[in-house]
Amino acid sequence: xxxxxxxxxxxxxxxxxxxxxxxxxxxxxxxxxxxxxxxxxxxxxxxxxxxxxxxxxxxxxxxxxxxxxxxxxxxxxxxxxxxxxxxxxxxxxxxxxxxxxxxxxxxxxxxxxxxxxxxxxxxxxxxxxxxxxxxxxxxxxxxxxxxxxxxxxxxxxxxxxxxxxxxxxxxxxxxxxxxxxxxxxxxxxxxxxxxxxxxxxxxxxxxxxxxxxxxxxxxxxxxxxxxxxxxxxxxxxxxxxxxxxxxxxxxxxxxxxxxxxxxxxxxxxxxxxxxxxxxxxxxxxxxxxxxxxxxxxxxxxxxxxxxxxxxxxxxxxxxxxxxxxxxxxxxxxxxxxxxxxxxxxxxxxxxxxxxxxxxxxxxxxxxxxxxxxxxxxxxxxxxxxxxxxxxxxxxxxxxxxxxxxxxxxxxxxxxxxxxxxxxxxxxxxxxxxxxxxxxxxxxxxxxxxxxxxxxxxxxxxxxxxxxxxxxxxxxxxxxxxxxxxxxxx
Amino acid sequence: xxxxxxxxxxxxxxxxxxxxxxxxxxxxxxxxxxxxxxxxxxxxxxxxxxxxxxxxxxxxxxxxxxxxxxxxxxxxxxxxxxxxxxxxxxxxxxxxxxxxxxxxxxxxxxxxxxxxxxxxxxxxxxxxxxxxxxxxxxxxxxxxxxxxxxxxxxxxxxxxxxxxxxxxxxxxxxxxxxxxxxxxxxxxxxxxxxxxxxxxxxxxxxxxxxxxxxxxxxxxxxxxxxxxxxxxxxxxxxxxxxxxxxxxxxxxxxxxxxxxxxxxxxxxxxxxxxxxxxxxxxxxxxxxxxxxxxxxxxxxxxxxxxxxxxxxxxxxxxxxxxxxxxxxxxxxxxxxxxxxxxxxxxxxxxxxxxxxxxxxxxxxxxxxxxxxxxxxxxxxxxxxxxxxxxxxxxxxxxxxxxxxxxxxxxxxxxxxxxxxxxxxxxxxxxxxxxxxxxxxxxxxxxxxxxxxxxxxxxxxxxxxxxxxxxxxxxxxxxxxxxxxxxxxxxxxxxxxxxxxxxxxxxxxxxxx
Amino acid sequence: xxxxxxxxxxxxxxxxxxxxxxxxxxxxxxxxxxxxxxxxxxxxxxxxxxxxxxxxxxxxxxxxxxxxxxxxxxxxxxxxxxxxxxxxxxxxxxxxxxxxxx
Amino acid sequence: xxxxxxxxxxxxxxxxxxxxxxxxxxxxxxxxxxxxxxxxxxxxxxxxxxxxxxxxxxxxxxxxxxxxxxxxxxxxxxxxxxxxxxxxxxxxxxxxxxxxxxxxxxxxxxxxxxxxxxxxxxxxxxxxxxxxxxxxxxxxxxxxxxxxxxxxxxxxxxxxxxxxxxxxxxxxxxxxxxxxxxxxxxxxxxxxxxxxxxxxxxxxxxxxxxxxxxxxxxxxxxxxxxxxxxxxxxxxxxxxxxxxxxxxxxxxxxxxxxxxxxxxxxxxxxxxxxxxxxxxxxxxxxxxxxxxxxxxxxxxxxxxxxxxxxxxxxxxxxxxxxxxxxxxxxxxxxxxxxxxxxxxxxxxxxxxxxxxxxxxxxxxxxxxxxxxxxxxxxxxxxxxxxxxxxxxxxxxxxxxxxxxxxxxxxxxxxxxxxxxxxxxxxxxxxxxxxxxxxxxxxxxxxxxxxxxxxxxxxxxxxxxxxxxxxxxxxxxxxxxxxxxxxxxxxxxxxxxxxxxxxxxxxxxxxxxxxxxxxxxxxxxxxxxxxxxxxxxxxxxxxxxxxxxxxxxxxxxxxxxxxxxxxxxxxxxxxxxxxxxxxxxxxxxxxxxxxxxxxxxxxxxxxxxxxxxxxxxxxxxxxxxxxxxxxxxxxxxxxxxxxxxxxxxxxxxxxxxxxxx
Lengths: 489, 512, 102, 660
Prior knowledge:
A: 489 residues, globular, C: mainly alpha, Helix Hairpins
């Protein structure tokens, strides 16, 4: 087994084992374990990335069992990118949680479990493992939200119900595909489906069920009501993970099913109405999400609504996936936007959580002039917001650029208009969140509870994520090359 | 001669160093504590000085020997971030770096003892990074990236004082600038898809020419989007609303930003668009030049008329900027070689002259607390040096000979008569009259206006009522420097490295 | 109609009824129970699909594995949901001395 | 260019030319920058430089004497500027040197207690004007000409505003407005002329190649020599000529544009008004001579006729209005307007009959020389009469003033007669409304005689009033200045004969000698002249007629025979006659235009704000609907219902497609 295959397996199992171990360890040891595992996963992902960028897909059949029944892990370009983003954001948030006094003891087991689930989803070769991984992520995520104290239990429960409903739909969909194609492995299923045009309606039904189920997990517009209270009331270390990473798992599975399962011949074009429906919901999500974000008076709900809006962007590009010459550009655009959003939103939520811990509230009025005491945190948040708006040197920009060019190629002018409106609205709520913090004088120059020295580690974590948003901005070309590896077309 | 100064291997590094210089300055300054004034001033001044030296070292190479140092970094699939130094880039980068050095000195003096200096100077350096980036941009995408960056970093500068008025002004500015930025983004996307990645080339980008011939409709639509986006920053009439309101910013901000960086970035964009993206002939065949020319003419007259109606010094200067900046657009869209040269040289001259006036406005506000024009009465006796600088700047704006303003007005006049639109000379003449109408009373008030206490003893023999007030050197030195440049650029206009000669050299390149 | 189609229909009816009930009811416990109904419904559909597919009336092994996993997961979520409901509707720690119910 | 007739080596002249332009500017720089030192040392330094200031004009004097044809090329200045000395320039520079030297002497070489307040500033402005003035004469390319012209007109404002009292402020405001109009007109004219330059492409090199081909880099300067034929050849000749006429007319005081002259002269200190009338007004004349396409065969009849009529109107109307004034300097101002009208007739004649252009030009120059010196002497004489009118110097003053007056009137044996004779010769053939121009011109002499009698009468009257300082400061304030000046009395070591008298005497002597010198030797075409009987009679009859009329009017006034409204105290027609009407017209148009514009402005602004309100209202409704939608979705049932609807929709679409 080569180093890459070893790391493929380890990247899933290591956090899982650590999660179990953490349950047994005393509190301080958990922090050390958490940070250690974060470093390990970063290393493993690095190894995998080197392998994949070199151009070939790493495959590993656990225990040697062949595909239909055995667990088959596969790491192609798409999964490596998502793994990398999760590793980066996860590591920074872990350091933040380790340094922050407010982290709950149970955080470590749940977070490491969630991380294991995420990695499982990203590298799983077959639908069943994806389902199991998603469930693990769902369960731990709900539990993580519930750590936020009394105010977060009701939203956690609501999140639970939606997660279960979504996964059941996914389960039925997967079952349908298995019953039609006889295999769980994505690649094999694709070949079988290609061979049997008569199975198209069943595949179509399965895909629709899977799509609706995942949209619930992704909180696409009509089904987004659970996301805002859940992400807003979650503790300061958890919100970035939820908005940045957890919803990306659902998107990953959606992309896998849409692009890998159905080849671009007949079946995909039958999905046109579904794609256009998603596009419409996405457009509505962008506009309503941004408008609602403009109305919020506290940082975390504002960030949560911004997530709703950003989710909308990914679905706006879905109709383009059906167009022949625009599919690739749109795909790169969606992935770049998702990755950029992951990092930027994590930075924003981390900053908001940090200020909430420091000032006891995330009401923007009370946080006026916070920039003077906590320049790092506010600067990190502003860089994050730049990434969210999609201004240059950020993956947001790269994503919007690719989607815009794909839209022009496919003559979908409405997408251009929507992107423009979305950018302006997001600039609106960015200014609404940032101007008081950065520019105004603090009403009560009382000392903030957290030590004011600029070298505080949480502050550094926030600026770290902000800088990451900027640095990854140059990664546009890297993403395009990575996605070539194991691409469906 | 330059090749021994820069080993050929090192040449592509120069533009990156230029951009990175002020970026590192910003990164160093942001975390600095407020009280470390000395260290912060040192970082600022050293960075600015090095940049000016680099530009000076580049001039002979780029203008004389025709070197084009270029640096490309992969950014988007299929399109790179390209930084290239050509005479026009050097022109604008030279202007902004020299004036950045002077404005830094001015700002250090101006902000002494005021809060938020680290934040101010951090964003100040970022703003210059963006400006230099815009000037060195080698293709349309890089231009767009720095164009948007400029919008972002100037927002906190406009809202620096943090009170309600400046926040409101900053929000209006952001709304305008981002709107413009999005328009440019859409234009760039559309152009890139239809005409391939657009590199700036002397006679216009290759792909664009074919696009213009194959489907003129889309070419015109794209031009409208791009020019409209850039018109916001160059404050062409319907889109100029943000400039006067942004005058609440501190004096060094309104000096550097609204006289040089922001406004010039927009106009520089239009120059690039007309000359290096479409190429002047293609743009002429598409017929897009004339409407832009008409818009610029309307702005010139409207700006001057509005300036006439203002009572506050900075608002009058702001509207004067609105009018003067459109001279450059006027020159470039005239479709005549002399006109283009005039437009380009005015890009620099207007920067020098307008920054002098803003510096003086800052000085008057600081020393005399004079904000209204009527407060200036008799200031000449109390602040002789800044009044002298103001007079030079004002004469420059009107276009009287010894100053740089005359040189560009003369060149524009010739260009107008040489171009298919001779009526533009009328616009220039009317605008000069309006300029005189609103600048001469200010100068008259400065020197000959009877200050309040002179009023009653007018008939009696005049005692020297106004003892000269102490004009802070840190504010005065840069003002006198820029006033000196105004005279120098006016008098020594035909020296080979003077702005006029470089502008002529560029415009010859444009016309092929 | 073969037994498979009957079970398939039954499963669908169960799932749809459970979903509608779950989405519209206000009471948390009722919602939790409805969630279980939907779970069972979808598992029945899976079994029916499995049976239909199998050659010699043995259900498809892969689908049965899916059903078992689905069952386990639904139970886990139900347990966790019940804990949350008890916490939400349980006595508030502040008025532990028999204040009005939550 | 003329060949260098004088023996000066080629090297000395260009250096002398740069010196003549730069030395005065250097002195001004010293005065301006003196503020850097302490107040006490600055005052002494300024005082010293002021005293030395008359010497700064010497290099220019030497330059004029060394002869013509020298050329100075400064490639880097402006658009590559060229300075050259030709006959006109030589003559007028000499006059400028004399006048400015005298003025500077009058202002600075006086005992401190009599010195003007702020004499340092006044001498500085005088020196800048001097540089501008000789720059206008010497410039050989249009851009340097325009630079010098602008420097001249805007520094002259410094002279007019010197006393800073109310009249001075009003005069300066009007003067500035007029000079801005003149500058802009000239700029437009020059640009149009430059654009019409056929031979050289403005941007550089030969224009035979297509304008877009890359040519030599050095841009050739737009020489004045090529200007006339460029203007003649250009499509907008009429427009250019009118612009130039208006532009230079303001400076030369032609009728509708003369209004600033009678206001500026009384407001300015006497030395300054001497320079204003003597030298500065001539800049306008030089502008016409250099640029107007006279000698090129294109008979610009319409422009020539209008100029001629305006000139004649100016010449005679100025006399009528001047006689009614009570302030000596206003009378002299109107006399200047009338004399400039005379010279403008010559220029107009040159335009009407191209063959005569050369002769009329030199005649104009000769007459300008004469008028400059004579009028300068009169203006300088006004304070001299006040200070030295009585006592031993009284006789000298009387003779001097009478001599200057007679010269201006053109009495025989004076330079005036010589000037008028030359002019009469030049305009031989032209006739206006049937009358020969050479008959009309002498009548101008009568007019000026009348004016001068009025001047003499008015000066004698003011002489009787209490001895007031020239700037109207009362006795009280002079005590104050004397106290201040006691401390620095020691610098003054001058003999009793102070600068005022000295400068006046120098100008009178020059007035007698210099016109002959220039006429005979320097200006071509004005050599052959001798006091023949005919010339004598031509000079005397207009003056006699003038005296006759003067006596008649004097007698009528003595017997109260004149109509009551005809009071000669400057009330009937205020100085600057037309200005009243023009000012009110300007104010009214500004107000109506302003109000119309502001009404339009309010309309657009209110429309804008209404649109903004509508937009924000719309945005508000969108936000409210979104918020209410959100609230409904927040509840579980709400979002549940929506999800059910979505699922149902998905199912129906699927079934429809499956069965369809």
